[in-house]
Write a structure and sequence with these properties.
The chain contains 13 helices and twelve strands. By secondary structure, it is α/β, with parallel strands linked by helices. The strands form two sheets. Strands 9-2-1-11-10-12 form a six-stranded parallel β-sheet. It has a six-stranded mixed β-sheet with strand order 7-5-4-3-6-8. Helix 2 packs parallel to helix 12. It starts with a helix and ends with a helix.
Length: about 375
Amino acid sequence: MKRKRAVQDVKSDTSKPTAIFQASSGRAYTVSVALPGSIITNALTPELKTHLGGRIARALAVFCVDEVVIFDDGQTRPRKDAEHHRHQNADDAFTGFSDPNYFLMHTLSYLETPPFLRPLLFPLHPDLRSAGSLPSLDMPHHLKSHEWCQYREGITVEKPTEGGESKKSGKRKREAAQSHGTSLVDVGLAQYISVPAAIPQDTRVTVKLPKDPDISASGDGPVNGLVVAPSAPREEAGYYWGYSVRAASSLSTVITECIFPGGYDLTVGTSERGMPVSDLARHTTVGGQVPQFNHMLVVFGGIAGLEVAVEADSELQRMGVKEPKELFDYWVNLCPGQGSRTIRTDEAVWLGLMGLRDVVVNKGRR
C-alpha cells in the first residue's frame, strides 16, 4: 500500500519541455523542401505575412528539414533589384508586397539564426518588424549561454567588448590572433573561441569545440576550436543543425541547381490529383518500391498549384513538359477526401512532412 502511494506521489514536471533533440550517430541524408514565395501574396497585412513565414519555419524545424528552396512560380512580379536588397540596411522598404520571394527568404533566414546572432547579422529592417512576435524555433543550435554542445554557431569578431579578460580581454588578444593567422569567434559563451583561420569580420561560422574545454564565466583568454562545415554537426554527430535557404528563379532550377553532390535522388511533388501519401508510406515499411535516398526533395505548390509554375517555366516549356508530375519520382495527395475546398501551402507543409515521416526515417541513408 505504501509503495503504491509512493508511486502515485511522483509527478511528472510538465512545466518544461522534455522532447529535447538527442543526437545519436551521424546522419548523411538530407531533406529539402521547396515552395513558391507567391504564397505570401495571399496574406493581406504585414503581420499576417510574417506569421505565415513563421508557421512554415516551425514545420521545417519540427521535422528536421535541412534545406528550404523558395522558387518563383510566375505568380508574382518581384523587384528587379531583389539581390540588392540582401545587402541593405534599415531604410529599405517592406518587401512583403513588392517582392514576396525575397520577403519569405528574409523571414526564414532570420528565424533559423540563433537568437544571440540575429542583432549582429540582421540590421533593423521593416521585413522583420513583427518577427519578434513569432514562436521560437528552439532548434538544437539555438543554444543558451549555460547550455553545452560540442558544436556552436558564432560570428567572427574584430572589435573587443569593453572590460577585462576573456571576452572582456580586448585588443591585445585580437591583435595577437591576427598576427598568427587565427580568428576569434563569439559563440555566445563567456569566452571567445580562437580558430586557426583568417576569416573576415562578421562572418557566421560553425565551430567545433574540444570535448572538455575550460570554459567558465570568469575564464581568461580564448578557447581553441575549429571552424567546420555547417553540415558537420549532422554528419559527424547526428545533430539537426537548422536549414539553409536557397532562391530558385523557376521550378526547374529548384532541381537543376541542387547544392548537394549528385543532386536529389528522391523527389516528391504534391497535388490533390496524386496518389495517397499513405500508400507511399506503406511501401517504405514493407520494403517496397521506394528506394533509399541520400537527398530527398519535397515540392509544394502555391495558391494555383504546381501547374502554373510549369507554365511559367520557359525551360520546362522548351523541353515539352506539360504536367508537373513528369518532374517527380512520386506525385502524392497529402489529404485525400479533404473537407475544405483548398489546403493552404503552410498547412500542406505540415501535412506533407508528417505523412512522409516514415519515408524519411526508414529510407534515408545514414
